[in-house]
Design a protein that fits this description.
CATH class of the largest domain: Alpha Beta
Number of helices: 11
Keywords: Heme, Iron, Metal-binding
CATH architecture of the largest domain: Roll
GO molecular function: cytochrome-b5 reductase activity, acting on NAD(P)H; heme binding; metal ion binding
Pfam families: Cyt-b5
Family: Belongs to the cytochrome b5 family.
Protein name: Cytochrome b5 heme-binding domain-containing protein
Order of helices and strands: HHHHHHHEHEEEHHHE
Shape: globular
CATH topology of the largest domain: Flavocytochrome B2, Chain A, domain 1
Strand content: 5-15%
């Protein structure tokens, strides 16, 4: 009984309130565990605020991932964003956009003038407006096997905002097909379901094309 008293005293802060032990002082030979939990349970409960390790990793195991090509890690994407992206080089289809009559009628002279000055779309104010007719002309995806091909030009809608994913698709952990199969949808519900902990606005900031207008996607 005296040994138990000493153990409790070592874990108090002077206020007679029990203090949760840190990981570094847990003795694996100690048998006095609350509710008989093992060392592994206590360790993960301390880190994850009483959330079991099984619950925290199950969603990751269940997600279908594809093997990305070399040079397509999150760090590689960040490098592309901070080099090509800030200069507006991640947006495909801009030359066609400048000659699109529907686009020219829909947008203000101020916005079009900035586009003609090669200002990156994410910096243009007022934002460019893109409707369904224009969007569909920029949803062509052939392949990424031929890096000399200029046919790929893929835009999508996320929460009413148009992004160019032409460069990003090869970086998507879930693969290309899952995104291109949803081209007629606003991707926000899908994104929130699978990537709710990621800020797509930050991830795709330099892929921003403009605001989706006209009929809403369902």
């Amino acid at each position: 009984m005296e040994a138990k008293k000493t153990t409790i005293t070592n874990h108090t802060d002077g206020t007679n309130r029990f203090k949760t032990p840190s990981i570094r002082i847990i003795n694996p030979l100690t048998q006095n565990r609350t509710n008989g939990n093992s060392l592994l349970s206590v360790k993960f409960n301390t880190i994850n605020n009483s959330t079991s390790i099984a619950n925290s990793t199950t969603p990751l195991r269940n997600r279908n991932k594809v093997k990305l090509k070399p040079g397509h890690s999150p760090l590689d994407w960040n490098h592309i964003v901070t080099t090509k992206g800030i200069n507006g080089e991640l947006i495909t289809g801009l030359s066609q956009l400048k000659e699109d009559s529907a686009f020219l009628q829909l947008n203000s002279k101020t916005s079009i003038h900035q586009l003609n000055l090669s200002i990156p779309p994410y910096k243009i104010k007022p934002h460019l407006k893109i409707n369904k007719e224009i969007l569909q002309r920029h949803q062509k995806w052939i392949s990424t096997d031929d890096k000399t091909s200029t046919d790929n030009d893929y835009w999508c809608v996320i929460d009413g905002t148009v992004y160019c994913l032409t460069e990003y698709l090869d970086f998507h952990p879930g693969g290309i097909d899952i995104i291109t199969s949803l081209k007629d949808k606003d991707l926000l519900p899908w994104f929130n379901k699978h990537h709710r902990w990621i800020s797509y606005e930050k991830l795709l900031q330099t892929c921003f094309v403009g605001i989706y207008v006209e009929e809403k996607y369902v």
